[in-house]
Design a protein that fits this description.
The protein contains 11 helices and 12 strands. The chain is globular. The N and C termini lie close together (11 Å). The strands form 2 sheets. Strands 2-1-3-12-11-4-5-10-8-9 form a 10-stranded mixed β-sheet, with helices on both faces. A two-stranded antiparallel ribbon has the order 6-7. The protein folds into 2 domains: 214 residues, Isopropylmalate Dehydrogenase, CATH 3.40.718; 143 residues, 3-Layer(aba) Sandwich (Isopropylmalate Dehydrogenase), CATH 3.40.718.10. The structure holds adenosine-5'-triphosphate. Adenosine-5'-triphosphate binds next to loops.
């Protein structure tokens, strides 16, 4: 049976449009190569440019169209020179997470052989863990609600039972899936600050309760400061981690650093009914319009999207196409000669795109 998917696309701001077109081409090439799966890509308005023309950064019509699609591909939004009247930056991507109930921010940290990484230990070449960031509450629940007076500023962190149950259940199921597939040792770690804040003791108690349903997993706890240390000291021992929104925001950039930089770090924000796939990086206005952006994170986010669609719709072809994108990225970097501009090399968007497309054609066609 052949599947056709409708994909909503937010090309966004800054380097967004430069990496979105190549990503669509890579995904289409992978689907064509595998066969039995196809997609149409519908561009939607949101971001700083949209705010200038329409007065809103995330029009309702775009949210409705995105919600009606099978999956959402987003590059990067925002521009530090375009702000709301109170001086805050536009963050429509965060609003989208909240409006679509995307509670689980999935940040895989997997090194790509051939890409320069900061850790010299040989074990760092096989780092493969997943950070799950709660994405709709935590400290981010305070966005737009902060109270600032002349002498004091307050932002309130919110951890709910429902929000925590959702993200923790997702995490435990993911750890179990990785264990069953031989991709991970079956270790789930709750990352918090339960020794200091009762809100995190609450988060941890929900994690522990939900973990009782997974007798085959090893259940761990770590304080966020200790985890920051372990992510540098022994990241090869990590498997699946879950944490609060703000902690996850910070640790996911640390994870991107382990992989060689933001240009290599994909992500997904997943809820019960919708999912957004976007690179971990922002709109990089400092390099926009120069063809320098590394599109790898965007390609890998697209691969995650195809794999997610494959699982959700029982489409082996979509799963295989996602795997083919990942394999083509790995093959493109494997010999160490493709060095992106953000790693101090010469390879801009076009060169990375060309190499990935070339390798995709020469790789063995996966069976769907
Ligand atoms: P946000 O807050 O929206 O996540 P940010 O302020 O953290 O964004 P980014 O836009 O991610 O910042 O950029 C941080 C730095 O990383 C910039 O110097 C930018 O040029 C660089 N960078 C980000 N993404 C890429 C990429 N895909 N290729 C090359 N360099 C990138």
């Amino acid at each position: 049976m052949s599947h056709h998917f409708s994909i909503a696309v937010f090309e966004g701001d800054g380097i967004g449009p430069e990496i979105t077109g190549p990503c669509q081409e890579v995904l289409e090439a992978a689907m064509n190569r595998v066969g039995g799966v196809s997609a149409s890509f519908a561009p939607l308005a949101a971001g700083a440019k949209t705010y200038l023309t329409e007065g809103v950064a995330l029009p309702d019509a775009s949210v409705e169209a995105a919600a009606a699609s099978d999956a959402i591909l987003l590059s990067a939004m925002g521009d530090p020179t375009i702000r709301y009247p109170d001086g805050t930056e536009l963050i429509p991507q965060i609003e989208l997470r909240i409006r679509l109930g995307l509670y689980a921010g999935i940040r895989p940290v997997r090194t790509i052989p051939g890409v320069r990484i900061p850790l010299g230990d040989p074990r760092a070449k096989s780092i493969d863990f997943v950070l799950v960031r709660e994405s709709t509450e935590g400290l981010f629940a305070s966005i737009g609600k902060g109270e600032v007076s002349e002498d004091e500023a307050r932002e309130t962190l919110v951890i709910t039972k429902k929000g925590t149950e959702d993200v923790v259940r997702y995490t435990l199921a993911l750890a179990e899936r990785r264990r069953a597939a031989g991709e991970g040792p079956g270790r789930a770690t709750c990352v918090d600050k339960a020794n200091v804040f009762s809100a995190f003791a609450f988060f941890r108690s929900i994690f522990d309760k939900e973990a009782e349903a997974y007798p085959d997993l090893r259940i761990n706890h770590a304080y966020v400061d200790a985890m920051a240390l372990d992510m540098v000291r022994r990241p090869w021992d990590l498997d699946v981690l879950v944490t609060e929104n703000m902690f996850g925001d910070i640790l996911s950039d640390l994870g991107a650093g382990l992989m060689g930089g933001l240009g290599f770090a994909p992500s997904a924000d997943i809820g019960d009914d919708h999912a957004v796939f976007q690179p971990c990086h922002g709109s990089a206005p400092d390099i926009a319009g120069k063809g320098l952006a590394n599109p790898t994170a965007m390609f890998l986010s697209g691969a995650m999207m195809l794999e997610w669609l494959g699982e959700r719709h029982a489409s082996e072809a979509a799963r295989a196409a996602g795997g083919l994108v990942r394999d083509a990225v790995n093959a493109a970097f494997a010999d160490g000669t493709l060095v992106t501009v953000d790693q101090g090399g010469e390879a801009g968007t076009r060169m990375v795109f060309d190499r990935v497309m070339d390798r995709m054609q020469t790789l063995e066609r996966p069976a769907a």
